Amino acid sequence: MLSNQAMKILRIAFFAVAVLLAPQAMWAGQINIGDIYPRPADAIKRAWPLVSYLAKQLQPEGITDGKIVVVKTIPEMADLLKEKKVDLFIDSPFPAVAVSRLSGSKLLLRRWKKGVAGYHTVIFVEKDSGINQLEDLKGKIIAFEEPHNTSSYFLPKLVLVQKGLKVIQKRGASDAVAPNEVGYLFAGQDPNTMFWVLKGKASAGVMSNENYLLEARRYLNSLKVIHKTFTIPRHVLGYRADLDPKLVARIKEILIKMDQSEEGKKALQDFEKTTKFDEIPKGVLNPLLQSMKFIEAEFNIK
Amino acid sequence: MNLNIRLKLVAFTVCVVLLVGGSISLYSILQVREQILTTFEDQSQEITAMISRDILNPLYFFDISSLRRQLENIRLNPDFSYTYITDLNGVVLADGTRENSLRDQRLSDPFSKEVMLADHWISRTEEGTLKIGGPVFMADGSRIGYLQAGFALHRIYQIINDTTKTSLYITFICLGIGAILAVLLSASFTQPILSIARASREIGAGKLDTRLPINRGDELGTLAESINQMAVNLKINLERIQALHEINLATTSTLDTQAVLDLLLVRTALLLPYSAATVTLLNRETGELESVAGRNLNGEKWGTSWRKVETGLARAVFENKAPLAVGNIQTDRRTRDRDFFLQHGLVSYLGVPLAVKDDILGVLSFYAKEEHQFSNDEVEFLTTLAGQVAIAVHNSQLYDQTKRQAVELVTANKAKDEFLSVMSHELRTPLNVVMGYVGMINDGLLGDINPDQERALGKVISRSEDLLRMINEILQATSLEARAVKAESREISLGSFLDDLRSNYEIPMDKQLALNWDYPAELPVMRTDSEKLKHILENLINNAVKFTIQGNVTVSARYNPKAKAVEFKVADTGVGIQEEMIPSIFEMFRQGDSSETRPYGGVGIGLYIVKKFTDLLGGKIEAASEPGKGSIFTVTIPC
Fold it and tell me: How far is residue B568's CA from residue B501's CA, in Å, rounded to a whole number?
């Protein structure tokens, strides 16, 4: 017969073993996905299918809920990442790289949208404009769509800057453009950009290759493309650097396999017709990573 | 209350109109009010929900400026009493006023507390304001604040009041119109009813030309039509009954067939406007149908034409003993002379037999100038009419026959009387001569005769006397037939009368027969024709003696003071009379045994004369008899 003392020790030991052997939740709480967008209602609405799916799949890992956190600026997003109030974020490559630069977050996956993994920007002019190359844009006005738009602003502007052109924003089409600079205006929408170029308000315009095919289909005889940029992913998904690697791996696994289940496909389709998530091909973001100064300047990162 | 049906109908209809109209109006007003309020509440909730969607982004980012601006714009709408946007703790972020004076104040009123606990939009109506509030959710279900809006109800109440007033105006107008229409409608019902009642009274009083001038398609119109039709039918039936009555009267009041037929055709022409009618009767001698009367066949020509009307169709009616209706004479195979009908434009035909029991006397025929389908009603009436006419014709024919026979009978009777008179007179004269000479021989006035001769002459005399008596009786009967015999009454002593009569029979008879007399000594004096009374009694006594081989004959007389009459009886124990012969024994030339081998003589005139004499004396005679046992004749003569 064991003594009472021995029995007490045995019970404590048994409890300790039981606790140690019991399945442990990887990460308790809710998972927060961040989005940089001026209209949070729209942002939450579009991302909710993905977030709810992901949260559900992560329940075995202790995730109880998912939440979308919307902010207006890159620094705000970076701050939330650093404060662990945001675990994942999805954005186009330029803001994503900027957020990573500010918060130390890492990029994890590429998001396919509408069956397309990436896109590029075309710079087009009127066929009879006499403009044949980017250098011919000196002293001319180019129409971008709107600020902080990857395909219709960052990407063409980066290309122009990389060409050594001085790209200066103008208040209007009547503003003078110095011969050694390229002036630019924001048209607001792609149809406006097309209209401005056709009416001569701007000498050149920029659009994603997909939008150009749509907008220029009736004017192809009047237009010509003078430059195509390099291709970049449509969106990328990043995570905060201190997120548990096992959870990151699990998230990566869930998202990559998402298009292999009906439930996952449905969530992807509802999430702005996303096709799938996959690994970011090696080197595809190098042009951006190598242009960090441009990005820092654009996003006012110090 | 004794209200007439019109007032009741008006009162009832107006009450129904007011009750139903008022109820519908009240219900409608309440429904409209409820609907307006519900619609306003729904719209207000929708507007509030729209506002909540518009403030999602600034509320998410706590963009107070945007929230203020949006609420200020909303407050430009006068329907809003207030608007609040609060954070999750109920602290006001924007109140829609330029001053935003409620900013940072925590709302603690009951409705705000309710809103903070609610999961959806809730509403309350307080102090003329519709309060709507609820949480503001993002698409992921997260609650980011609260929105409250107050909607002023005074404008809605004004709309409700205006709508109610309009509804009431319309209701009153409609009820007024409804009441007027109810009165008019009631009048439109009761007026025809009164007209119908009045017309019914007039028709009932015999004014069969009364007609209801109601021209409407409803049940009252149908009723009026029925009553008009009833009046028409009554008139037709009355005219038919009158026609039948007249014809019936004619059949019973006259035996003139032609007059009856003419009346028949006149009446049928008035009742049934056919183009022509004819009567054809069977000629029993020739077996042919002959037209005996006609009317309306082509004016003047009719006078001679109707006799020539072909009788093919009538023959068919006659043979089939049933009515025959032919829509088109020209196409009927039984028509013999199509040209005749074509010439007179006669198209349709109806024939009914003139029948008395199973005897068809002829045919009543009608012709129409247009194709006409004879109705069962027409056929039935005309058949009835034809039945009446047939009786008249039959009676007339019988009368004619009887009249002819009577004339023949009178002639024959006269000839018979004359014959009998002449013959009797011519027989009696020589018979008297014979009897005179035989009596003289028998009395020996012409020489002696031996006993055998005497017996033979006695028989001659006896038979001659029988013969003379028979001739006298025949003469007497002839006189009676000619009503030439009169009673000559005078007072006689009945006792003496009977004593004298008895004395005539106090002679021996050649058979075992006793003649008994039974009458009291005291008999009254009576006033009568003694000769005829004597003839009556003698005849009865002689008959009794004649038909009684043996036994007795009793003659009795009794006075009956109550009847003031004398009853004579002659009873015998003779051969008697068969019971079935008794009623006819008083007829001329009748005897109890009329066979040629009868054992008793006589021509059967005696009792005829006895009966006639008794009648002349105002008395009566009865006979009772039993064959083989005897007879009793009782004669009662008034004093």
Answer: 13
Spatial separation of the C-alpha atoms in residues B51 and B462, rounded to whole Å: 167
Selected residue with higher pLDDT from A113 and B292 = A113
- DSSP-derived letter for residue B323 is -
CATH number of the domain that residue A272 is part of: 3.40.190.10
Which of A33, A36, A44, A54 to probe by mutation at the B interface, max B CB count within 10 Å?
A44
- What is the phi-psi region of residue B299: left when phi exceeds 0, alpha when psi lies from -120 to 50, beta otherwise? left
Chain B, nearest residue to A47 by Cα:
B140
pLDDT value of residue B2: 58
| Number of domains comprising chain A | 2
Query: Do A76 and A160 belong to one domain?
Result: no
| B452-477 per-position pLDDT tens digit | 888 888 888 888 888 887 888 777 78
Residue type, B106: R
Residues A240 and A203 in one domain: no
Domains of chain B: 240-376 (3.30.450.40), 487-638 (3.30.565.10)
CA dist., res. B111 & res. B115, Å (int): 6
- Mutate: best of B138, B143, B144, B147, partner A, most A CBs <10 A: B138
Instruction: Say yes or no for a CB contact (<8 Å) between A40 and B61.
Output: yes
- Gap between the Cα atoms of A46 and A67, Å rounded: 12
Q: Which residues of A touch B56 (CB under 8 A)?
A: 40-41
Q: What mean pLDDT do residues B142-150 have?
A: 94
Distances (CA, A) of B614 to A259, B530, B570, B582: 154, 12, 15, 17
d(CA B171, CA B25): 6
Taking CA–CA distances from B138, the nearest residue in chain A reads A41
Residue range(s) defining the domain that contains residue A175:
121-229
- Say whether residue B60 is in contact with chain A using an 8 A CB cutoff: yes
Orientation of helix B219-253 relative to helix B154-204, angle to 10°: 0
**Both tokens assigned to A203:** 């000498």
What is the three-class DSSP state of A205? strand
A200 shares a domain with A260 = no
Nearest CB neighbour to B60, from listed A41, A48, A51 = A41
Closest CA to B59 of A44, A122, A193: A44
Strand, helix or coil for residue A255: helix
Structure tokens at B530: 């003694």
B60 and A38 within 8 Å at the Cβ level: the answer is no
The answer on A188 and A156 residing in a single domain is: yes
Do residues B631 and B576 make contact, with C-beta atoms less than 8 angstroms apart? yes
DSSP string, B390-425: HHHHHHHHHHHHHHHHHHHHHHHHHHHHHHHHHHHH
Count other Cβ atoms within 10 Å, centred on residue B309: 23
Cα(B340)–Cα(B343) distance, integer angstroms: 5
> In this structure, are A98 and A245 located in the same domain?
yes
At A137-147, the pLDDT tens digits run 999 999 999 98
Pairing of strands A181-186, A166-169: parallel
- The greatest distance separating any two alpha carbons of chain A, rounded to the nearest whole angstrom, comes to 104
Per DSSP, helices labelled H in chain A are 4-21, 40-57, 74-82, 93-103, 155-162, 190-199, 209-215, 245-256, 262-270, 286-289, 292-298
Are the beta carbons of B140 and A67 separated by less than 8 Å?
yes
In Å, how far are B129, B217, B252, B360, B446 from B157, measured between CA atoms?
11, 50, 96, 98, 169
The tens digit of pLDDT for each residue in A44-62 reads 999 999 999 999 999 998 9
Shared domain check, A224 and A83: no
| Token duo for residue B386 | 């034809």
Each residue's pLDDT tens digit, B578-595: 888 888 888 877 665 555
Asked if the model's pLDDT at residue A17 lies above 80, the reply is no
